[in-house]
Design a protein that fits this description.
Elements: H1 2-32, H2 35-47, H3 55-70, H4 74-79, H5 83-97, H6 104-127, H7 131-147, H8 153-166, H9 169-181, H10 188-199, H11 203-216, H12 221-233, H13 237-250, H14 255-271, H15 275-295, H16 300-321, H17 327-342, H18 345-354, H19 359-372, H20 375-385
Length: 387
Amino acid sequence: MKNLLTIIGATATLGLAAQNANVVSAYNYMKDGNLPKAVEYIEPAILDAKTSVVEKTWRYRAEIYRLIALGEDAALKQQFPDALDRAAESYMKANELDEKGAYKRENSQALAALQGASLNAGNDAFTAKEYDRAIACYGRSEQIAKSFGQADTNAVFNSALAYEAKGDAAMAIERYKESIRIGYAKPEVYRYIASLQNKAGDRDAAIATTREGLTKYAGNKELMLDLITFLLAADKSDEAEAGVKAALEVDPGNAVLWSVLGGLYDKKASDAKDEAGIMGWYAKAEEAYKKSIEIDPKFFDAYFNIGVLYNNRAAFEYEKCNKLKSDAEYTKCKTAADAIYLKAVPFFEQAHALNPTDVQTMEQLKKLYAKTGDTVKYEQMKAKLGK
């Protein structure tokens, strides 16, 4: 029994010596610049029960793979495609085993370099549209930062961009929200989340997210415009109107906002029950559209919309005329209605000048020219429409 125990002890000693020799050989090959041989010797050492719990083993392994990952030898990088991962995990393991902190400063400096390299590798992969690889690289950068007790906000945000580009909306939203949670302080993150929620059909969530963004970035014009867009799409006119007015306080020279406000007033006119209310809202809508044109004389929508406004006003008048029994009263009423209707002509003409291919504008002009008896312009418009 004594001889047997002696043999077992000797065998164990030889095994440990062999693995220690592997660590030393790996280090020597690394110093000589023969990195493939260094890898060949270091890998068995990290699998051994004795040498795998030694800080030096992991530090040498980390150094070997760091030299491969950050070196200029493309063939070597191709031979060891996961060198960055292995270097990072090895430095983190070395720090974990370095109870006295003898090498923590050097290891941490090396890890910081690997973190930067990981982030850059992720950006390169993203540019190349290799989104899965980009996500993996950003994940590595994030993991390294966590080992320092820090948060890599850029890596988290960029991973969200990669998930969105890849078409994984759920993960993109999750990562965008995580980037907000860890302090990525930019209003566009809320915009990206809301846009994805809206595309998924969850308009209420998009509205809530945008409002959350505005509580943090009050007065942000892009968020305010997004909120108005979502509210209009959700047919929440009163809330949209409040949003437009709030946005105009921040950006009074915004022609689009004035045109949107005109559209909201136009809708209120259509919904109003009494004539005074109808005329009042039409007047407000006309004023808002004209303000939009004043700010931006080349804004097609405002010209087109004010033309439609005059159509709607005239239609209201024609309906009143049709209820009259007296020919004289009818003629007087119709003349007034025609005058309102024809007020649309210069606005539709300007809209046509700005966008000569818009079919709706041409259709309106054809009807108006027929009304005025302008056969030349009528035939021109008819020819453009191919009718």
